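Whiteboard transcription, Tuesday session. T.W. wrote the structure tokens on the left side:
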């Protein structure tokens, strides 16, 4: 299977199983933990996928699809952890390598077509056809291979449109550019699938929870140096500059009518999970499961919430002083203004609302930026940007010998 999110794969799932949940119910009887892990375990030993994973016989395509979706099911139990980054990176590299070997994107999730309809004069200029000194290898890199509808292209492309040949409602792309575009599309579809499955993880067989435990071990080993150097995400100070736009809007203060949702619902849940437990092991997690001292809440999280509330018009906590108790209630301590750590669990520690709920309840907060593409929850936005910053920092450190 060249692309587990591609048209051929999705048609196979519909034809054989009807929907994804039925497929996930069938997988544990057909795939072992080791078989599923084989799609990603190679990352611990090699930078490139092994030969045995690059060629899949047509008779084994369904089993190959089982292994990939088994990993997605497992990630439903760890939707914000390093396991997601580990599996996303491994499978993206694997399926890209398969696509490169076949030199075709016809079966992929991208709606691409052969690059037809380019005037000959334009093609000669763009492909430098008259430059006789250009080696054939370089000529091949310059050839426009595919075209993609501009409406789909714009939603994925992060570069300048000046670098792209556009004609008749299509963007025309060279092979390397279309591969990068595929990677973007794959990663977004991957994250969306994990987010959707996390909402139904209680319905999944126990097999996936066990697989999640094995993925946690592999990801911990793969990211060992990063964890030792940077510490786990849950122990680091908040990076306000990496917050999603909706949270930044809430921090500015909001008018009456939006205050309770922006401050008590969104800001309280986002700040607490982002700081204390970005990768909750289960839905009923409590703050006392994540920290042993309430000072981090009282000194780092609560002051930010109160400051944002005071910026509201009128100031939330002057207008509604009892709302402090409601903050603690949403943090899981019950309706109190003097909690102890042992009170954790007296109420539900509310998880950040998904983007669609924010748009429905407080549309003024939703001002998407380029990083919002493919994101379904503000916590995902923050953790993805945080991971990219850390990875970028590691690469720069490596370049400098650090």
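and on the right, the sequence the group agreed on:
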């Amino acid at each position: 299977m060249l692309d587990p999110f591609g048209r051929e794969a999705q048609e196979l799932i519909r034809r054989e199983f009807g929907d994804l949940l039925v497929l996930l119910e069938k997988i544990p009887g057909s795939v072992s933990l080791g078989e599923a892990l084989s799609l990603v375990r190679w990352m611990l030993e090699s930078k490139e996928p092994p030969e045995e994973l690059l060629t899949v016989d047509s008779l084994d395509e369904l089993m190959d699809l089982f292994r990939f979706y088994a990993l997605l099911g497992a990630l439903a139990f760890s939707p914000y952890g390093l396991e997601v980054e580990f599996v996303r990176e491994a499978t993206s590299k694997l399926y890209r390598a398969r696509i490169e070997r076949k030199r075709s994107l016809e079966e992929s999730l991208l709606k691409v077509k052969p690059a037809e309809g380019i005037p000959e004069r334009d093609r000669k200029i763009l492909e430098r056809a008259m430059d006789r000194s250009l080696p054939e290898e370089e000529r091949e890199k310059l050839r426009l291979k595919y075209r993609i509808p501009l409406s789909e292209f714009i939603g994925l492309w992060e570069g300048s449109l000046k670098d792209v040949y556009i004609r008749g409602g299509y963007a025309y792309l060279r092979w390397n550019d279309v591969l990068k575009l595929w990677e973007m599309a794959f990663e977004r579809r991957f994250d969306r699938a994990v987010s959707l499955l996390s909402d139904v993880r209680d319905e999944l067989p126990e097999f996936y929870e066990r697989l999640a435990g094995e993925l946690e071990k592999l990801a911990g080993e793969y990211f060992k140096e990063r964890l030792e150097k940077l510490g786990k995400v849950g122990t680091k100070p908040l990076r306000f500059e990496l917050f999603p736009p909706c949270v930044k809007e809430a921090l500015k203060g909001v008018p009456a009518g939006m205050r309770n949702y922006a401050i008590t619902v969104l800001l309280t849940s986002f700040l607490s999970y982002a700081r204390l437990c970005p990768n909750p092991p289960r839905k009923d997690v409590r703050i006392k499961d994540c920290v042993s001292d309430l000072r981090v809440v009282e000194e780092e999280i609560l002051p930010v919430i109160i400051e944002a509330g005071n910026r509201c018009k009128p100031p939330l906590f002057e207008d509604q002083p009892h709302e402090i108790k409601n903050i603690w209630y949403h943090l899981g301590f019950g309706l109190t203004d003097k909690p102890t750590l042992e009170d954790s669990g007296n109420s539900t520690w509310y998880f950040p609302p998904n983007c669609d709920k924010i748009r429905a309840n407080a549309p003024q907060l939703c001002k998407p930026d380029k990083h919002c593409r493919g994101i379904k929850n503000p916590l995902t936005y923050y953790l993805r940007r945080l991971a990219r910053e850390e990875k970028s920092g590691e690469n720069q450190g490596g370049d400098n010998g650090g």
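Someone added at the bottom: The chain has three domains: 7-105+182-222, 113-178, 232-399.
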